[in-house]
């Protein structure tokens, strides 16, 4: 499991990989947050859950990443960790949250997930995904 981020013209490119689709989506959340915030020393302040509608793997990835951006903008919270579980009706996502005032900004704040260069694939027992995030 892992992730990396790289600058992209006026954007951030996220890549993540893991043995399962759900873990790959969770790693993508970690990559998104790490692209603009240092969580070192942040304490958990609560939990949050989201039900993600069924769709293509790419659609569900975008919906989870958009949920992180939405919660940051509306509740001032960021996930310290993310658990993703498959349901017959989509995904159940559980975030362990911290208050944004506890984090150190280290990059441009994300605004939205782009559909450009979006991908989520499984190959050789490993899932990988890629997303471009507007900043």
Features:
135 residues; alpha+beta; Archease, Possible Chaperone, Chain: A, domain 1; 4-stranded antiparallel β-sheet; 2 helices
Walkthrough of the structure:
With 135 residues, the chain is α+β, with helices and mostly antiparallel strands. The protein has one domain: 3-Layer(bab) Sandwich (Archease, Possible Chaperone, Chain: A, domain 1). 24% of the residues lie in helices and 50% in strands. It contains 2 helices and 9 strands; from the N terminus they run E-E-H-E-E-H-E-E-E-E-E. A hairpin with a 2-residue loop joins strand 8 and strand 9 (126-134).
Mean pLDDT: 94
Radius of gyration: 14 Å
Q: How many angstroms does the end-to-end distance come to?
A: 25 Å
Major β-sheet profile: 4 strands, antiparallel
Q: Which fold does the CATH topology refer to? A: Archease, Possible Chaperone, Chain: A, domain 1
Q: What share of the residues lie within helices?
A: 10-25%
Order of helices and strands: EEHEEHEEEEE
Tell me, what's the shape?
globular
Let me know the number of strands.
9
Structural class given helices, strands, pairing? alpha+beta
Q: What is the number of domains?
A: 1
Spatial order of the strands forming the largest sheet: 1-2-9-8
Oligomer: single chain
How many individual helices? 2
What is the CATH homology-level superfamily? Answer: Archease domain
Assess the beta-strand content as a share of residues: over 45%
Q: Can you identify the CATH class?
A: Alpha Beta
**What low-confidence regions span 5 or more consecutive residues with pLDDT below 50?**
none
């Amino acid at each position: 499991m892992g992730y990396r981020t790289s600058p992209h013209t006026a954007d951030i490119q996220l890549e993540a990989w893991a043995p399962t689709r759900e873990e790959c989506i969770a790693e993508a959340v970690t990559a998104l947050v790490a692209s603009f915030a240092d969580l070192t020393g942040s304490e958990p302040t609560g939990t949050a859950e989201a039900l993600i509608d069924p769709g293509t793997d790419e659609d569900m990835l975008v919906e989870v990443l958009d949920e992180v951006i939405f919660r940051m903008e509306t509740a001032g919270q960021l996930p310290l960790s993310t658990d993703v579980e498959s349901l017959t009706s989509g995904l159940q996502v559980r975030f362990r949250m911290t208050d944004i005032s506890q984090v150190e900004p280290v990059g441009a704040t994300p605004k939205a997930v782009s559909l450009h260069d979006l991908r989520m694939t499984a190959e050789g027992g490993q899932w990988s995904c890629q997303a471009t995030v507007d900043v």
